[in-house]
Amino acid sequence: QVQLVESGGGLVQPGGSLRLSCAVSGNILRFYVTGWYRQALGKQRELVATITRTGTTNYADSVKGRFIISRDNAKNTVYLQMNSLQPEDTAVYYCNAGSWGLGTQVTVSS
Question: pLDDT grade, residue 26 (50/70/90)?
Fold first, then answer.
């Protein structure tokens, strides 16, 4: 079973940036689509962004223009560059590639 390990979360002030990474065990090319999701306290998990094997991306409206998803097939890693972070971006962020990671906490607060 594939294992996913997210990293890069933390506490950041509004307007700041963070870069999340998701290391995928094995060959990431097995997965046509990989993505990032998030779950805020008391809310359902929601899509943040996805990227296909060929580089086609899709974003939630709430993060368009602020977040960038990318993947490095050679390193079996998926990234999420998050800019202009706002308090409403506070959540646990999960990577998905055939399975789920344990998540990484992102907190946006002054």
Answer: confident
